[in-house]
Design a protein that fits this description.
The structure holds 2 protein chains of 2 kinds. By secondary structure, chain A is of the alpha/beta class. Chain A has one domain: P-loop containing nucleotide triphosphate hydrolases (Rossmann fold, 3-Layer(aba) Sandwich). In chain A, 34% of the residues lie in helices and 24% in strands. In chain B, a hairpin with a 2-residue loop joins β2 and β3. The chains are: A alpha/beta, B alpha+beta.
């Protein structure tokens, strides 16, 4: 995992199977009398090593797209293949394993557990992956080192600044060496300097061959990505989808 | 995720909410301590009743006048004066009753004893020299009265330890004690029966020869006759021999119309114990209800915990925790709360069993089996009442959980 694919860093020369394939994915919520279509036939391919941003206003359905991409939710219809495997029909246990092994999440609210120190937060996905204690600590500390927080490993989240907390969250996303790092408004709660830090970290990760999906409503944040797509009314806006 | 890891995160969650966890544990603790103490109280009461009954003697049969049947026509228990000294003498005949080793007829009455300036009201028994062996007693000082005393209806008395002390007699042998204004010479003092703390104090009594008592009361009837079987195995045979002989002596052909009742010691034990059992079950029932309340406390706290940690659960799921892992974590938390309550409750119960008897007269017998059982029950309560909150946590959809603020 995490090894560069055959066409690692260039979006123009993709060959072989995409890492992420959405084929006419619909997501419909039936809450009241009228069914709400959050996704209206989304199709997109994302290749290994790509750094893609998805820009859209709130309510555009991009969060629903991200939930399905992150295997936190399943489509109502259509197919979603992750690394060639159809995950649209998986049960909860299988989805949990896919999330654990293939996806690294970075959230707007950081979502660190306040009772745990930085490195204990970072090792959490490894706990669920069944990695031994010693190996977990080594890997967690090295991930913290990568995000420049090696000296803050024993701090609790409330002893860290917002930017530092988000870097801990990035370390947590990286520690399992996932296929995809999925960042949902990662700079939404940060000041401009911390935002720049985080985006610089993503750029470094991209150079190292990591696949990154960045979801945002800010154009300047989205511009940091190598490939920018626009999302509106439950689907990608045509030109971008054609480009994919 | 290994069991150890799950246990660790359960313990961490408990440690994070110390006060809340402590209060939950308290609920279980009180219930468990109450169960252990009430069961111990019941067992202690049973044990002391048993020892009081066993202190009456060994392999005993007690013949009392009147019928034990509750028919409307017949007089109540012990109401008829149908037993006599002559009956007792007949029962002592080895030819008719080979399985009866000893016979001690008793008359008994309350009387006031006076020695010097002290007086004391106690039960005065009139009996035969065999009383001492039938009742399994020994002498502490002086001697037991003799057949000669019996034959002469001598004014001699043997005192129980408590009676001697209450009369202020430090060297009682040879001293004079007035019983209802008749002077008696103290021949000896009985050794303590060892049941002075029980309700039936076997040391607060005085014994005089039966013949002397008959002169005082002017009747040859006796209150009851204590029979001692030759061994435990011959109790039933002795019962049968005594019944047949007494029926014959009283001229009764139909055994159901017997005007006397023979009670065995073991039936006394089982009657007394069954009363205690009822009480114990009742108390234990109340204690069980408090345990149930404790269990509901666990459920309540676990539900609060699930709601409060909804984001944590969502995050853990996003990071790869399966529903099973989440369920196990909450179940472990609940059972750890139960275990902590159980262990602390057991400790409190054991301490209570040591301390409480200093303030009340009852003994509390703690059994290891009941204590271990109570701890197991506490853990089971944690698990049972943790199942619902745990499965709620496990079913939470990760996006809902992550979205909640």
């Amino acid at each position: 995992m995490g090894a560069p694919g055959p066409a690692a860093n260039s979006s123009s020369s993709h060959t072989g199977r995409p890492l992420v394939e959405f084929q006419n994915v619909w997501k419909t919520y039936v809450t009241g009398a009228e069914p709400v279509h959050a996704l209206r036939g989304v199709s997109i391919n994302i290749y290994r090593g790509e750094y893609i941003s998805i820009v859209g206003p709130s309510g555009s359905g991009k969060s629903t797209f991200m939930h399905i991409l992150g295997c936190l939710d399943t489509p109502t219809s259509g197919r979603y293949l992750l690394a060639g495997t159809d995950v649209s029909k998986m049960d909860e246990e299988q989805l949990a394993e896919v999330r654990n092994r293939r996806i690294g999440f970075v959230f707007q609210q950081f979502h660190l557990l306040p009772s745990l120190t930085a490195w204990r937060n970072v090792e959490l996905p490894l706990v669920y992956a069944g990695v031994g204690r010693h190996a977990r600590k080594v890997r967690a500390l090295s991930a913290l080192e990568q995000v420049g927080l090696g000296n803050r490993a024993d701090h609790h989240p409330n002893q860290l600044s917002g930017g530092q907390q988000q870097r801990v969250a990035v370390a947590r996303a990286l520690v399992t060496e996932p296929d995809v790092v999925l960042a949902d408004e990662p700079t939404g709660n940060l000041d401009s300097r911390a935002s720049a830090d985080v985006l610089a970290m993503f750029a470094d990760m991209h150079k190292a061959g990591r696949t990154i999906v960045l979801i945002t409503h800010e154009n300047d944040v989205a511009a940091a990505a190598e490939r920018v797509t626009r999302f509106r009314d439950g689907r990608f806006i045509e030109p971008e989808q054609a480009a994919a | 995720m290994s069991f150890f890891e799950t246990l660790r995160s359960g313990l961490e969650a408990i440690a994070t909410h110390r006060l809340r966890s402590g209060l939950t544990v308290l609920g279980i603790l009180i219930g468990i301590a109450a169960v252990i103490l009430t069961v111990g109280l019941g067992e202690g009461a049973t044990a002391s009743v048993n020892s009081a009954i066993n202190a009456l003697g060994t392999n005993l049969l007690i013949v009392t006048p009147g019928s034990s049947t509750t028919g409307l026509v017949r007089g109540g228990f012990g109401s008829a004066d149908t037993l006599t000294y002559a009956n007792a003498k007949a029962l002592a005949n080895k030819k008719d009753c080979p399985d009866i080793a000893g016979v001690a007829p008793q008359v008994q009455a309350f009387a006031t004893l006076v020695a010097g300036n002290n007086n004391w009201t106690t039960t005065v028994y009139g009996s035969t020299p065999q009383w001492l062996s039938v009742r399994g007693r020994t002498m502490a000082e002086g001697s037991w009265f003799t057949s000669a005393d019996m034959a002469h209806a001598a004014n001699v008395v043997v005192l129980g330890q408590t009676t001697a002390v209450e009369l202020g007699l430090f060297n009682p042998v040879g001293q004079t004690v007035n019983i209802d204004n008749v002077p008696f010479t103290v021949e000896g003092v009985l050794a303590s029966s060892g049941t002075s703390s029980s309700a039936q104090n076997q040391d607060d009594l005085a014994v005089v020869p039966l013949t002397t008592a008959e002169e005082v009361t002017g009747t040859a009837n006796v209150s009851n006759i204590y029979l001692q079987a030759t061994s435990q195995g011959t109790l039933n045979a002795a019962d049968e021999e005594a019944t047949n002989l007494l029926l014959q002596l009283h001229g009764i052909t139909n055994p159901t119309e017997a005007d006397f009742t023979i009670t065995t010691q073991s039936s006394l034990v089982s009657t007394a114990t069954s009363v205690d059992k009822t009480l114990t079950v009742l108390l234990a029932g109340i204690a069980a209800i408090s345990l149930l309340v404790g269990g509901i406390g666990v459920m309540n706290i676990m539900l609060v915990s699930v709601t409060e940690r909804i984001r944590e659960i969502g995050l853990r799921k996003a990071l790869g925790a399966t529903p099973g892992v989440i369920r196990r974590q909450f179940l472990i938390e609940a059972s750890v709360l139960g275990l902590a309550g159980g262990l602390a409750g057991a400790a409190l119960g054991i301490i209570g069993a040591e301390v409480i008897p200093h303030f009340i007269s009852n003994k509390i017998a703690i059994s290891g089996f009941a204590t271990a059982g109570a701890v197991v029950v506490a853990v089971a309560i944690g698990i049972v009442f943790g199942v619902y909150p745990a499965s709620r946590a496990a079913r939470l959809a990760p996006i809902e959980a992550l979205r909640s603020e």
